[in-house]
């Protein structure tokens, strides 16, 4: 993976507008983080990265269920693929699935206690993986912007 810490910033001679350049840098950094996170997610939770994203959406408000259509919309995934992922998570005992009252086609998904427990146990390792990867793949100005979004993010570059 490339080190993006020395990526040129959007200057007056760039072909890209500042917003597009910033978006591309963020995509590069998040792609690198995603690659690093895949192994940790598999080791700690024994789920795929896509299944992990579903768990994260549900964990944002662990007492509430989300409709499958909303999960598909938030993740930008086809509903058929999401159906398979939810089935895998349900088989692993990590989510429950139930029909929405008054809507015969609607299905809600919620975390189980097992999933809550696993996420709590794994959260420190997952957060550390994200911090370390962001530190390696973001330049100083990107780290500064990230610190504004995540105050606990350590914006120091990793030793080489």
Automatic annotation (TrEMBL):
PROSITE patterns: HTH_MARR_2
Residue ranges annotated for the HTH marR-type domain, each copy included: 19-155
Source organism superkingdom: Bacteria
InterPro entries tied to this protein: HTH_MarR-typ, MarR/SlyA-like
PANTHER family hit by this protein: MARR FAMILY REGULATORY PROTEIN, TRANSCRIPTIONAL REGULATOR, MARR FAMILY
Protein name (record): HTH marR-type domain-containing protein
Annotated source species: Streptomyces osmaniensis
